Amino acid sequence: MKKLFLTTAFLVGSLQVQGATDPFAQQLFVIAEQRANLFHDSAAPFQLEVDFSAQLNVPTEGHLTLKWEGKDRWWSKVVLGEFEQIAIRNGDRRYITRNAGFTPLRVGELTSLIHFAAESEGQTAKKLQRRVENGAELGCIAVEREKVKGESHEVCVDVNSHEILSEEWREAPDERRREQFSDYFDFGASRYPRKLQFQEDGIKVVAANVISLQAATFDEKLLVAPEGAIERRQCTDMKRAVPVKTPDPLYPKSASRDKLMGDTSVAMTVLVDGSVSDIQLIGRATQSMDDATLRTLKGWKFKPAMCGADPIVSDIVVVVSFRLE
After folding, report:
1. Is the Cβ–Cβ distance between 205 and 198 less than 8 Å?
2. Where along the chain do the CATH 3.30.2420.10 domains lie?
3. Do 52 and 207 touch, CB atoms closer than 8 A?
4. 236 three-class SS
């Protein structure tokens, strides 16, 4: 009944292949990733400006500015309606300041969207299918992600231009998530899309347009953490928090009787002892479902996130899906 999603940036997107069974699929993956990955280690400093629209209670306009020098040296600002957030990565520390108690889910989805070809691990190409869509010849590759069960993942690449056109996930119980990319342009050794879109169950929830992408010097002053910023340790071998005691919330009798279904989304912090704190409701279902979720999550326990042998504090988002079978 429940699904767990981490809020750390750059969750979605890599096209790295491990153990591919089809040599052509592997080659297609590698070339597509290399061409689209704006955030590789050898990239020169740049500044990215993105206008976007996100579906909150109503469609809401936003803007993202990203100033990038490397994976561990960057500064970003996101404005979404009245929400504002500045995030900084400086070495093994990440800092966040924001004018709300939590970061909207759509901001995390936008961040994942613009990092769609950034490196990640544990993906295996299982099967390649050729298709023709809108006159373009596509190679659509079924991908399996390590340690992720019950998920169908497909990446479609234009076999002639080697541009990534879409990534799609199907997750239990009935969720479908899709990213689409179009209107690519050259930037240095990379090609990057001007238009990016994220859909949930066929509904567009984030639409982003690249306004500018240009080489820029990186100001060291940007890495100074603002007073009062939330600080989190980062590391290259970081292991994320693992749930060890997560009882399901009880399905409210009134909701079950009326055949109501919904998703409750909660942001919370996992402490170094595995307990949780700072539990905040960020996506609502019905009042009874939300209340049941909040009561139950207070007692959840985790194996904390780890940097090497050190337990560290981490932030996660939990989505509890109430479904009647």
Report:
1. yes
2. 235-322
3. yes
4. coil
Per-residue pLDDT of the chain (325 residues; tens, 9 = 90+): 444 443 332 222 333 333 445 667 777 877 887 888 898 766 789 999 999 999 998 999 999 999 999 999 999 999 999 999 999 999 999 999 999 989 998 999 999 999 988 755 556 667 788 888 888 899 898 877 665 555 678 889 999 999 999 999 887 656 789 999 999 999 988 999 999 999 998 999 999 999 999 999 999 999 999 999 999 999 988 899 999 999 999 999 999 899 999 989 999 999 999 999 999 998 889 999 999 999 999 999 999 999 999 999 999 999 888 988 7
- Give CATH for domain 235-322: 3.30.2420.10
Dihedral angle at the C-alpha atoms of 49, 82, 11, 208, nearest 10 degrees?
A: -40
* Pick among 2.60.40.10, 3.40.50.700, 3.40.640.10, 2.50.20.10: CATH of 13-223: 2.50.20.10
Ranges in the chain annotated CATH 2.50.20.10: 13-223
Q: How far apart are CA 183 and CA 163, in angstroms?
A: 10
Q: How far apart are CA 90 and CA 75, in angstroms?
A: 9
Q: Where are the alpha helices (DSSP H) in 2-143?
A: 23-36, 105-114
Contact 208, 192 (CB under 8 A): no
Instruction: Name the token pair of 91.
Output: 């070495």
